[in-house]
Fold this protein.
Amino acid sequence: MRILALFFSMFTYARYKMHHNTEQLLKLIDDNKLSTKDVAEMLGRTNQTVRIWRSKTGHRVIPDHQLELLRLKLASRQAGVV
């Protein structure tokens, strides 16, 4: 019975553990006080796509290149470059 409980807890953790890119996206959104619309406009994506990326289910994760582009755009915005 303990083995079954351990397996179930490991399965549940692995299933609901947030992807690293999702964690990074949520941190950027929080740190920079961005809305879904802000991120969508900066990356040329739809609001729906960004909402999917923000979801913690991990079905679709923001691609590495999109995350890097968001970081670059935020850095240039903070530096005053438009």
Notes: The mean pLDDT is 87. Helices lie at 2-16, 20-31, 36-43, 47-54, 64-78. The chain is about 70% helix and 0% strand. The radius of gyration is 16 Å.
